[in-house]
Amino acid sequence: MLTTLRSLFMPFALVAALGLMLSSCGRKGDLDVPGTPATTKNDKTKPKVEDRPFILDPIL
């Protein structure tokens, strides 16, 4: 019974160890610098919308 359990556990442990080793691989170095933010070229403001009452407003 013990050998059967060990024979099932060893491949699982090896696959788990291999997965951990491979998942730690990556590019070594500093993180990439984020790009510059996009600036808005449209300086127009939206017109104000009239506030109309809604039937559920008192509940909210």
Automatic annotation (TrEMBL):
Its main location: membrane. Pfam families: LptM_cons. The keyword Chloroplast does not apply. GO terms for cellular component: cell outer membrane. It is a lipid-anchor. It is found in: Cell outer membrane. The keyword Cell membrane does not apply. Keywords: Cell outer membrane, Lipoprotein, Membrane, Palmitate, Signal. It comes from the Bacteria. InterPro entries: LptM_cons (IPR032831). This is Lipoprotein. It comes from Rhizobium setariae.
